[in-house]
Amino acid sequence: MQSESARVTTAREAGYRIQYPNSKTRSVKVIALDPASAKLLDEISQEPWNGARFFTALSFSADGEPGATGAGLQAWLQDIAGRTMSLVEEIASSDFVVVVTSAGEDARAVSVIADACALHHKSLVALVAPGEGASDADVSASMAHLRPFARMLVIAHAPDYISAMLTALRA
After folding, report:
1. Which residues 6+ apart lie within 8 Å of 122 measured at CB?
2. Alpha carbon distance 38, 25 (integer Å)
3. Exposed, middle or buried by CB within 10 Å (0-12, 13-18, 19+), for 150?
4. Is 99 domain-assigned?
5. In whole angstroms, how far apart are CA 118 and each of 2, 71, 113, 129?
6. What is the pLDDT of residue 108?
7. Is residue 21 part of a domain?
8. Number of neighbours of residue 52 by Cβ within 10 angstroms
C-alpha cells in the first residue's frame, strides 16, 4: 500500500495542485537607522528581491513642527540610489516596514518611522545587528529603545541572517 505522500505525487493527483505561488509579492520598505547598518543594507540590496526597497537616510523638514505626527509629519528617506522620497508616502504604499540598526548606534529615528507606520496602520519589524565588538549592554540598549515601536524585534547576528529574515517575510 502506498503512503499518502506517495499517492499525492502521482500524475493524476498532481493535476489538482495549484500551479502558482500561494501569495502575492509584498511591498517592504527596509530602512537603515545608522551609517553602519546603511553599509550593511547597501550590500544586502544587491541580492535579488521581490518587493523590497532599501533606504539609508532619514531627514526632517525644517518647516515642519517639532514633534509633529499624523498629517503634520514631514520626513524624507533616501534610497540606495540616492533618490529622496517622502517617508509618509513610502510607508503608505508598503505592506510593512523593517528597520535595521547596529547595536549601540543612535536609533532615535525609529520613533518618527513608527509614527508614520501608525498613521497608515503598518507593522514595524526591527532588526538589531550586533556587529563586531558590540557588548551585551549595547545590544540591550538598542533593543530597549526599539521595543516600544516594533511588532517584532530580532537580534540579527550576521548579514546573512538579515537576508534570510527578509526572504522569510517575502520581501
Report:
1. 91, 94, 95, 96, 97, 116
2. 24
3. buried
4. yes
5. 52, 12, 9, 24
6. 86
7. no
8. 23
Task: Quote the number of domains for the chain.
Answer: 1
CATH number at residue 114: 3.40.50.1440
Which domain, by its residues, includes 159? 26-168
pLDDT for the residue 12: 73
**How far apart (Å, rounded) are the C-alpha atoms in residues 91 and 89?**
5
Residue 85: inside a domain: yes
Length of the chain: 171
Q: What is the pLDDT of residues 100-147, one digit of tens each?
A: 999 999 888 899 999 999 999 999 999 999 988 889 999 999 999 999
The DSSP code for 74 is: -
User: Quick one: pLDDT at residue 65?
Assistant: 46
pTM (global) more than 0.70: yes
Please report whether residue 3 resides in a domain: no
Task: Return the biggest CA–CA distance within the chain.
Answer: 75
Q: Residue 125: name the closest of 149, 102, 109, 161 by CA.
A: 149
